[in-house]
Amino acid sequence: MGAGTGTGPDGSSRSDEEWERFLRESVAGAADAPKEPSARARDVAKRLHAEPDRGPEGWRSYTPAQPKRRTGWYVVGLLASLMLLVVALAPGPILDLFAGDDPASPPLAAETARPTQAPPTEAAQRPTVDRPFRGSPAESWASGAAGITVPKAKAVGWMSAAEVERALARSRDFLVASNLDRGVLRGERPETAIALINPHQKDVQDLLKSAFRAPSEENDPLLLVSRFQPSRIRLVGDVVKTRGLLSYREGKRGALQVTADVTFVYPVTRAVAGGDGDEIVRTIVRRELILSWDDPDKVITEPGTFSIVSYKYDMTNGGCGTTTGYLTPPFGTDRQVEETGTAVDPYDRSAPIRRSESAGDECGTATRS
User: Fold this and answer.
1) Cα–Cα distance measured from residue 50 to residue 53, given in angstroms and rounded to the nearest whole number
2) What is the reported pLDDT for 333?
3) Which run of H or of E encompasses 209?
4) Which of 255, 257, 184 lies closest to 224, judged by CA?
5) Other CB atoms within 10 Å distance of the CB of residue 100
6) CB within 10 Å: which end of the chain, N or C, has fewer?
């Protein structure tokens, strides 16, 4: 028998190449030879046999644990980066979304006592026709009579609780008729407001007679009434923002004494467009009145009327100089000429009113409008 040869099962001789392949396969194992399962595979098979309800899953169908997905964080990061880019390119419109002055947002809670500090400063934003209170605390104030808080009525002096309630309502009616009535704001005579004042109070009746006929520093309708000259000024929109309250106590001779402290914000523009025809100015008037609802058995009066004990008012962007009987807000370069007095925050209701019955006080410079 030659070297490198062998004999097959049928007695035939094998070539050297076949014999070498046979030896290799004997050592490595034939490709199609059955292999014994590993110990782990046997354990899995045994568990599956003991739990037939788990279905036909094979021992090689192992599903690895899924890694935690972080796609959400990637998306958030991408959106944040895009937002920063937009703010850098167009900060104005984006800031409007977060400035807290959304006209659709609910109004500020009613004022129930004089505040102890001024409202926070708003982001500097110019008013627009659609949003004339934009960039001011007044944007979150209530509108019209709704911004004047009327306290719960209790019996005081000669009045029962029901009578006090009616007197408080009529006191607010006076503020509405003299500072919110559209006709009066356009320069008409405030007949409804005048009808609520005691006709036997001579000093006030003399003031009213002279004020609308021949306005003067002493007899100025602005002491009690807010009005604009329609040929020069028009209101922007149908809303006047207000904030304030009524309070009451027993006064002299058992009278009901009502104190009103209310701020009115009027957005206005020129009646005839000029160089800055779309410029909007906010005229701000704060009034403090003390009204006396007197006992008719002790004071000469008429039913349903009150006497005015005192009146104070303060205004910004309402005009300075010659008395005209109208609020005369400045526009354009006129504003720079008038802004020379003491700095005043017209929204600071914690400070006392400066201007009294005499309208000749120095005009202040509004720190904001």
Assistant:
1) 9
2) 77
3) helix 202-211
4) 184
5) 11
6) N
- The answer to whether 311 and 335 have CB atoms below 8 angstroms apart is no
Name the amino acid, one letter, at 209. Answer: K
Distance CA 196, CA 166 (A): 13
* 262, 243 contact by CB (below 8 A): yes
Distance of CA 113 to CAs 122, 130, 357, Å?
22, 31, 24
* Helix, strand, coil fractions of the chain, as percent rounded to 5: 30, 20, 50
**pLDDT over 60 (residue 317):** yes
CA 133, 136, 142, 144 dihedral sign is negative
Residues 6+ apart with CB under 8 A from 138: 241, 243, 265, 282, 347
The pair of structure tokens assigned to 148 is 């004047």
**What's the confidence (pLDDT) of residue 123?**
83
Per DSSP, the residues of 306-344 read: BEEEEEEEEEESS--SS--SSB----THHHHHHTTS-EE
Range from 72-76, 111-115, 170-174, 178-182 carrying the lowest mean pLDDT? 72-76
- Domain edges within the chain: 116-366
The per-type count for the chain, helices as H runs and strands as E runs, is 9, 11
Residue 232 CB contacts under 8 Å (≥ 6 apart), including other chains = 270, 271, 326, 328
Which of helix, strand or coil describes residue 137? Answer: helix
CA distance 20 to 97: 85
Return the structure tokens found at 6. 């062998």
Single-letter amino acid, residue 350: S
Q: Cα(259)–Cα(287) distance, rounded to whole angstroms? A: 10
- DSSP annotation of 108: P
Question: Tokens representing 52?
Answer: 């037939």
